[in-house]
Amino acid sequence: MMMIKTIYYYIVLLLLLVTLIKANSNSNNKQQFATKQEYVEHLENLSKQFIHHHAVSIKPINNNEKDNIYYANKERGIFVNEDIKEGSDIVNLQWINIFSLDRIKHETPHLYQLLQENDVSAEIGLAISLMYYRYCKDDTTSEYYQWMNSLPTELNTGLYFNPDEIQLLKGSPAFVHLMLQIDQTREMYQKLNGEMFKDKIFDGCAINWDRYKWAVSIVGSRGIYTELPIDKELEKKKETKEKEEKEEEEESLQQRLTIVLAPFIDYFNHNNDAQATYDFDHESSSIRVSLLKSVKSGEQIFLNYGNQNCDSDFLIDYGFVESNINCVNVLFEELLELIPDNDPKLIEKTTILEEAFSHGQRLKLFSGSLTEELLKISKYLAYKNNGLLEFLKQLINLKIANYPTTVEQDKALVSSASFQSISYRSRLATTMAMHEKVVLHSVLKLIQDKITDSSEPIKSNVKDEL
Questions:
Q1: Which one, 35, 64, 65, 374, has the greatest CB density within 10 A?
Q2: PANTHER family given for it (predicted)?
Q3: Whole-prediction pTM value?
Q4: What would the pLDDT profile of 374-383 be if each residue is shown by its tens digit?
């Protein structure tokens, strides 16, 4: 009888322990705000903590303020409530308030050592650190605690697309982009889960795929690249160095870029025609956001996330599409498919393609124009086959044929009442694919007009440089 009571006691104790662990784990999943008003007040306090100009604040985006960008319903942005002149600094975020690997190195050295031992990239290292601080370091007094709990728990970036939503990306470069991203992220998670995440530092929290996916997506969509602050001690040592090569090496190390999460600055939304930019001020060791042009009261202030991005990049990496983006990425596989198997220069042309894409070159088609990079490589690929214009026409027809729907079908869906009933990511994917097809058809017309205007088919006059 005593043995039965003892067993029963341990079972109850075990169940209680499991309940407490679950409660602790679930508490990290909840927003720390009981009402929407509390959340708004928190954002206002965040504004006061980091802004440099009193007229700048975080506000919700209304429908009339969306401009050309399709945002999620709960998106917020940075607004001004008075006129501010060009050149004004509106945000000054001290390095000590920035979530960086440099901070991790000094504040949580064991975690930093693990990142070094596992040789992860800066982006993955910052994501792991974010996940650790968010889910493992249960410190309500941390200056990052409320900021981390105000971060979105679900995003519209690529890793959050479900299988049905992914199917809507077929034909678009976004589909290939996402498939690669999923494979690489899964592979890294499995590697870390089998090694690094077994370290005792992660014993107090439940690390899983959903939390890792969240951290990677947050860093990918909200992280910014900036310079590191100058190490004054290192600068003093450098002055005493006699070898010029050593000095140059140390200087180059100091100028390298790093990715960080910058509270408040991560609320700035994107626009190609941004009114503001950011840079690192070494004198004050802070990131400054300053105005490139004067702004009026009530305006939303934008940063530019990158002029080289097409809609497929913005959707997968940031979770939005912009209607005035007029470019479409060209894939390695698409160009390779256009080289005939019996082409006498097949090996040389394939090598040129591989070298071009291995160096990070991004080939694009723009509405109304063709980039120099695409024209150059297309001339090589078209050599001893069809003329350049015929090759480009073939490329665009191939890209259009890869989409499962037509522009007309997309437009009919977007204008229908049922469009609002599908998921937000589905609407983003449909809108992006429609934009891409419009661009492709405009370029196709441009090329066809040039072919028609020619008195005879234009042949490539590229010399045999292969």
A1: 374
A2: SET DOMAIN-CONTAINING PROTEIN, UNCHARACTERIZED PUTATIVE METHYLTRANSFERASE
A3: 0.80
A4: 888 888 888 8
